[in-house]
Amino acid sequence: MQTKLQNGIFYLGTSKIGNSCHVVFVRAGVGTIASEVGEVLVKLWTMLNNLEKGEVNDLIGVHARHLHPGNLNTLVGYGPDLFSIKGIKKQKPLTLSEDITFKQPCLSGGGPIIENSGIRYSKDIVKNDAQSDHIILQFVGDNEFITSRASFETWKLLSKFQNSLGNDILYLTNIFTGFQRDDRRNWFGFHDGVSNLRSKDRFQVLSIAKKDVTDKDIWTINGTYMSFLRIEFDIDKWNKLNYNDQSIIIGRDKITGCPLIGVDRNKLPIKDKRCPVRGTFEVLEKGNEIFREHGPFGKQMYLPRGASDNLLLKSHIGVVNPTKEQSDKTNAYRIYRQGFEFLEPIRSYPGFRVGLNFISFQKAPKRLFNLLKHSSSKDKTLEQYTELPSFETFFTVRTAGIFIVPPRAINEPFPGAGIFLDKLSISKIDKSKSRYTSKKGQLY
């Protein structure tokens, strides 16, 4: 069977990623069985495919000139708890095992997101819903209307179907919104996503290969694993630092995005003088590619006398990047990430919350968990070098989950159909009929 990665993973670098993102979480209602979920997902995926063309279910007949596809890209993934639904046809993938999972927060709120990590939940978070939700949907489009319409139409369709107990077969539990900033910076003011995998390296990092799985998990080949972390920034705390200290904590110059190579005797950051190249102003401009991947600290060249790069070992750039020896030996830290900033209103001061929707794709969840644990353990060993706080103290996590994203297969009505339906059922699917009735008692 011919399979390939789903849309919504912008790894080729040939098309511009949409400015707006919605991440939608879905759960199966009590008493729902796998075949019911599968048949509703057939309807949902058909509707979403039409929506990618700008066609809305109950607006059939609208003239083509009035359709607004908006470059919508849709992706679906499945969480660990989905595989406990009655009648599931596939076992939970071995690499989605119990030891590769996010912890639940403390009963009083907060706590580490995984064992041996300094990254923590926000103090008001007492439950990590994303880890227990069954399905994740990602909608990426040109603007907020396109992604909001996809979320709305998803709710509208799912609300039509009930199981034998009268519960919704599938229902929305949460929607997280985000956007791409035109200046490609985050809320801390620094360039974001500067150091990411080169386009030519991405497929082998994120796509599951035959050698990566057991015979029972062959159905995941050419799929990937998706992580989602809703990260909250402590801007109040960050703004109390001066410009130089902020740059040292990140490891890059705030204005240009160029890498720092050291800190002088007065604890002032030293930028690589070769960056940005003549005629440019930021590291993201053409010609500065060599400065986006940061060389390892401890071996920086061009340092003035009396300067050192030891202080930068604890910087964000220094901590999250394993040494070349570690990365090449195990290849266990490499992931492909996509980020979408967010701002949402809240009732407490200052009236809003800002942060990042951290989305990553990797061929095995362990890669992400290795990276999260590595940054924390490395950070603890470097406390001797600076009195400045680590970058991890300026953000917390509001929810986190990991999901299998099956490949697209030509003969399946939606990615992962074989999880819910047997081959005979898939072959007999008639997309114009369903044995389920809507809440109004009408066939859908």
Strand fraction equals: 15-25%
Overall spatial form: globular
- What strand line-up does the widest sheet have? 3-4-2-5
Helix and strand succession?
A: EEHEHEHEHEHHEEHHEEHEEH
Give Rg in angstroms: 23 Å
Based on secondary structure, the structural category is alpha+beta
Number of helices: 10
Number of strands: 12
Mean pLDDT: 88
**CATH class wording of the domain at 3-233 and 403-427:** Alpha Beta
Helix content: 10-25%
**Alpha carbon gap, first and last residue:** 30 Å
Enumerate the spans where pLDDT stays under 50 for 5 or more consecutive residues: 325-330, 378-384, 431-444
Tell me about the biggest sheet?
4 strands, antiparallel
What features would you describe in this structure?
This protein has a domain at 3-233 and 403-427: Alpha-Beta Plaits. It is 20% helix and 19% strand. The protein is built from ten helices and twelve strands. A four-stranded antiparallel β-sheet has the order 3-4-2-5, covered by helices on one side. It has a four-stranded antiparallel β-sheet with strand order 9-10-6-11. A two-stranded antiparallel ribbon has the order 1-12.
Question: Would you summarize the structure shown here?
Answer:
With 444 residues, this protein is of the alpha+beta class.
Fold topology:
Layout: E1 3-4, E2 20-28, H1 34-51, E3 73-78, H2 129-132, E4 135-141, H3 144-158, E5 170-179, H4 199-206, E6 224-233, H5 235-238, H6 243-250, E7 260-263, E8 269-271, H7 316-320, H8 324-330, E9 336-345, E10 352-362, H9 365-381, E11 395-405, E12 408-409, H10 423-427
Antiparallel strand pairs: 1-12, 2-4, 2-5, 3-4, 6-10, 6-11, 7-8, 9-10
Helix pairs in contact: 1-3
